[in-house]
């Protein structure tokens, strides 16, 4: 009998349900079925695929509350967070790609100067079977992003959800079936790392969202097979507060960005750099913004639990080591006695420096660390002092100044006077640099990741360009001719 994978509610550690695991040995057959589905799906025109995707969207909309409830039960976040950040965001992405895939993948002309006797264009063709390995923190949305991007490009998909949130992944597959998507177009496999590794060994492109450590292993496995890997990995996101910032809004944004989903967000605000001139005033506003924000209370300012023992121990260790190294615990930091889950109070640390692990290693918990800096140059220098580079935030009323600083930050995305909004902007690329990943989601970059960009040329005249240039056997042109041609074309 097949093994069962049990899902637990992190709020009370009670089982939510279970699913049958997939054997790594089954993956090859699943991929073969996916290839058949790919041939059918990729042969459809944009309009037919659009209608399928819009039906999928309407199906999710009709059962959105059920999706939010499942996400809540498997992650511990309230449904009032699960619906906007897993359901609404997914509806937006599906609608966007359904309506814009044709535009993003339209063949484009390519200039051929100086070979004027040749014309050229680029066309985008789907890669084939896309493997998707998704995480537990936003289990529906972060599964939908690569799945729908690949579908819109013309690929078929095999999804392996996190073993912590298998029921949300299973529900996604059921919704695809209910929407009438072609048989085997989206297949869901269940299990741990061994199933994900088997997937990488057989698909044509792999998309992984998760930790940088596991992402590196996925990239290495993909490189051995010379297949593309789209990786959205960890972050250690900085927030810079300048002297001309709206301090109240900056503080409120910092608290939301650092505490939502108990800090278990890839774009979570983990480091704050405040210029000296407004540091004390900002700290007062930060304290006000944290008023009433708590854990394990169940009220409207509540944050949920950490997902499991391992994540709790990681966050607990970071806090304790920072305090032992000289950081000051300004607020929070205590472990709470919840109804069975792992809860840590919303935590603020000060007197930190960039050498501490709390400032260098991803926390993924309800902790923000604040550093006083003398000026904007120091803020930028410290913000860039990280091996990550997923998201950053700048707060200043001077638009030109804020834009200049955004350009100096080594980060795949930057928000000015806002918090993590790039995470839901489907029209522009979202991705990281350094250990934050490879490739992008969203926009034309996101959908094109699942395509082969094929360059095609065609001779404009009866004689091909090679014949007109005289580059055939036997050679009829000497060095004098080629040097003269080079000077004529490129001496300016």
- Average pLDDT works out at 96
Largest sheet composition: 7 strands, mixed
Helix content: 40-55%
**Measured distance between first and last alpha carbons:** 75 Å
CATH architecture of the largest domain: 3-Layer(aba) Sandwich
What class do helices, strands and sheet pairing give? alpha/beta
Rg (CA only): 26 Å
Oligomeric form: single chain
- Note the total helix count: 17
Shape: globular
Describe what you observe in this structure.
A 7-stranded mixed β-sheet has the order 14-17-18-11-10-19-20, with helices on both faces. Strands 7-6-5-8-9-21 form a 6-stranded mixed β-sheet, with helices on both faces. It has helices at residues 27-42, 46-62, 64-75, 79-104, 141-153, 166-178, 193-200, 212-225, 247-259, 276-289, 309-324, 357-360, 376-383, 399-408, 443-448, 465-469, 479-490, and strands at 4-9, 14-20, 108-110, 118-126, 129-133, 156-160, 186-188, 205-209, 229-232, 237-241, 269-275, 294-295, 302-303, 328-331, 335-336, 343-344, 347-350, 367-373, 391-395, 413-416, 437-438, 451-459. A hairpin with a 4-residue loop joins strand 1 (4-9) and strand 2 (14-20). It folds into 3 domains: 4-233 and 441-452, Aldehyde Dehydrogenase, Chain A, domain 1 (3-Layer(aba) Sandwich), CATH 3.40.605; 237-427, Aldehyde Dehydrogenase, Chain A, domain 2 (3-Layer(aba) Sandwich); 461-490, no CATH class. Helix 3 (64-75) packs across helix 4 (79-104) and helix 3 runs antiparallel to helix 6. The protein is of the alpha/beta class. The mean pLDDT is 96. The chain contains 17 helices and 22 strands. The relative contact order is 0.13.
């Amino acid at each position: 009998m097949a093994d069962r994978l049990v899902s637990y509610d992190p709020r009370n550690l009670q089982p939510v349900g279970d699913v049958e695991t997939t054997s790594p040995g089954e993956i090859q057959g699943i991929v073969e079925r996916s290839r058949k589905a790919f041939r059918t799906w990729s042969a459809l025109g944009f309009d037919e695929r659009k209608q399928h995707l819009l039906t999928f969207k309407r199906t999710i909309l009709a059962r959105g509350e059920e999706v939010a409830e499942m996400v809540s039960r498997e992650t511990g976040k309230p449904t009032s967070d699960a619906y906007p950040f897993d359901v609404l965001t997914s509806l937006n992405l599906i609608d966007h790609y359904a309506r814009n895939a044709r535009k993003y993948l339209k063949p484009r002309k390519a200039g051929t100067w100086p070979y004027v006797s040749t014309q050229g264009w680029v066309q985008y063709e789907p890669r084939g079977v896309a493997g998707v390995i998704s995480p537990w923190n936003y289990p529906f949305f972060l599964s939908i992003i690569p799945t729908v991007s690949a579908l819109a490009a013309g690929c078929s998909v095999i999804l392996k959800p996190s073993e912590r949130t298998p029921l949300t992944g299973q529900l996604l597959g059921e919704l695809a079936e209910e929407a009438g998507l072609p048989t085997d177009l989206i297949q869901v496999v269940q299990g741990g790392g061994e199933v994900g590794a088997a997937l990488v060994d057989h698909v044509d492109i792999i998309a992984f969202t998760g930790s940088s450590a596991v992402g590196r292993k996925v990239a290495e496995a993909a490189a051995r097979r010379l297949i593309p890997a789209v990786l959205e990995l960890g972050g250690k996101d900085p927030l810079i507060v300048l002297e001309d910032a709206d301090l109240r809004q900056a503080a409120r944004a910092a608290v939301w960005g650092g505490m939502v989903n108990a800090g278990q967000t890839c774009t979570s605000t983990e480091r704050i750099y405040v210029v000296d001139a407004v540091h004390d005033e900002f700290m007062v506003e930060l304290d006000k913004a944290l008023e009433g924000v708590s854990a394990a209370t169940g009220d409207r300012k509540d944050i949920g639990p950490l997902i499991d023992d391992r994540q709790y121990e990681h966050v607990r260790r970071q806090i304790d080591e920072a305090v032992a190294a000289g950081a000051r615990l300004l607020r929070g930091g205590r472990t709470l006695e919840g109804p069975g889950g792992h809860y840590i109070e919303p935590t603020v640390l000060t007197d930190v420096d960039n050498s501490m692990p709390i400032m260098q290693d991803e926390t993924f918990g309800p902790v923000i660390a604040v550093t006083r800096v003398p000026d904007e140059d120091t803020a930028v220098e410290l913000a860039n002092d990280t091996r990550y580079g997923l998201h950053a935030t700048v707060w200043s009323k001077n638009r030109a100044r804020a834009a200049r600083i955004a350009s100096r930050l080594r980060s795949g995305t930057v928000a000015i006077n806002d918090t993590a909004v790039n995470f839901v902007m489907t029209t522009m690329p979202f991705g990281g640099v350094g250990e934050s990943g490879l490739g992008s989601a969203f926009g034309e970059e996101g959908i094109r990741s699942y395509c082969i960009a094929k360059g095609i040329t065609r001779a404009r005249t009866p004689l091909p360009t090679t014949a007109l240039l005289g580059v055939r056997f036997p050679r009829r042109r000497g060095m004098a001719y080629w040097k003269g041609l080079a000077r004529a074309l490129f001496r300016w």
